Amino acid sequence: MSKEIEVCYEREGRCLEALSKQKAGQVIEAEKEQVAKSNPQRVSRISDRLFRGALVFAGTCFLALGILGVFLPLLPTTPFLLLAAACYARSSKRFYNWLLNNRWFGSYIKNYHEGRGISLKLKVITLALLWGTITYSAFFVVDALYWRIILLVIAVGVTIHILKTRTLRQEG
To answer: What is the pLDDT, as a whole number, of residue 70?
Structure first.
């Protein structure tokens, strides 16, 4: 009697033949290599779906931060909306098209992305809200001098960025 233990070699749930453990391990490894060679796209498709799902999630988070940035002047709106658009562009045409055709953010993102700039009205509103809330926060909310200085430096930086951004000319 042989000392090797016989095992049932299974494929797709069926017992094909009795093999020694060593032989069964070799056959199974050969099958795995065969599957990897014959169907590498399956693994690729799964990782692509996970990657696209992660990008949709990240894009949604960036969109939420961009929306918050409309109301919170220290949180920048434009970079988050552009990041959301980039994530959606690489993951979901449906979400990307929805964002670009959105009635509040669509034209804003398109104009900024195409280098046409932002409207003078939007610049004025943005700067007024920025300086109003920063000034209020710096002098009535924050007690420490270094936080006041940081807030004012941020406001100056954002102001410079907005003023350097091309002004969109209204057509018609």
So the answer is: 81
Predicted confidence (pLDDT) at residue 5 exceeds the cutoff of 50: no
Domain of residue 110: give its range.
41-114
Q: Would 13 be classed as within a structural domain?
A: yes
Mean pLDDT within 150-168:
89
Pick left, alpha or beta for residue 151 (phi over 0 → left; psi -120 to 50 → alpha; otherwise beta). alpha
17 and 75, same domain (yes or no): no
Number of C-alpha atoms within 13 angstroms, CB side, residue 132? 8
In a domain, 1, yes or no: no
Tally of domains in the chain: 3
The amino acid sitting at 34 is: Q
Per DSSP, the residues of 48-75 read HHHHHHHHHHHHHHHHHHHHHHHH-TTS
Classify residue 124 by its DSSP letter.
H
| Residues paired with 14 in a beta bridge | 11
In three-state secondary structure terms, 42 is helix
Q: How far is CA 33 from CA 21, 38, 40, in A?
A: 18, 8, 10
> Residue 114 is which amino acid?
E
- Is pLDDT at 113 greater than 90 in this prediction? no
The answer to whether residues 48 and 108 belong to one domain is yes
The secondary element (H helix, E strand) that includes residue 26 is: helix 21-38
